Amino acid sequence: MKVGVIGVGYWGKKHVDEYSSLLHDVFVSDMDEKKLEFCKTKFGAKPVNDYHEILDNEEIKIVSICTPNHTHYELAVEALNAGKNILVEKPMAMNTEDAKAIIQLADEKKLNLLVGHIFRFNNAIDKAKQIIRNNEIGKVYTVSLRWLTLEPVFQDREILFDLGVHPIDIIDNIFEGIASNIFCSTRGFRQKNAEYATINYSLTSPFSEGRILVNVELSWLDPMRERTLRIIGSKKSLEVDCVGQKVSIVDNDSREITNIENQPNNTIRDELEFFIESVTHKKNIMEPSPNGTVAKRVLEILERVKNSSHDQR
Question: What structural domains and CATH numbers belong to the chain?
């Protein structure tokens, strides 16, 4: 199958790599000639100077949009109008109104829309979700996610919409809850835009009685990279290394730790295979897979987080 990738930076290259490994014919477009040459040499991709060459190619039915966040809406609309099924990297847009417009257009064109909420394809998250749904840890008291890394200074990016999408989506996926009492504290130490944030809110979920207290810590300042989910229950507690895909349960009384068997998977490959299959077999992308509705719901929470944020300088 012929597929297109628009934007081949850090994450776009991963799409090219996996599409190529799956033996698809990959066409790539980017403003950086060096990135195009890399994809041609490394993956055998076919570079084009203008992304419209991808959109105008009637043999290309699938396009991944991996460009900077603020370009997603415009490119998604262009690609759908060109008759392409699209995988848009997260966030699908920078506001919910644009997200609604993308969803509506995809529905009108009868084209598939997938959004790159990659942790929806993570076996460890699926395992945690199963444990919660089976009520194995009792009533859930608190949920905390630490999403920490060291990044360079960004002139045009802030941490909430860039990094905060993943933990918010993981919570939505597991609990399908309603968020309230949202409060966010942010600060940029090296730059004007936020590069550190803490998010707190209450969550009402059909999968646990009472309100769950949620805490999310985001950082572009920490050299000790971490992607950890911890859920404290009334009987047991659960910890997930979201990247290493390791899951453990702690008995609250005995403090005994049990490592849960889990087979790590290649999340991006599984995501792309799912997308290709949905297009090939003309299947609608339903929840909990990250269709437009899921992505818009996460975006709505992020907008509320952004509106509640307080700069601590």
Answer: 2-117+268-291 (3.40.50.720), 120-263+300-311 (3.30.360.10)
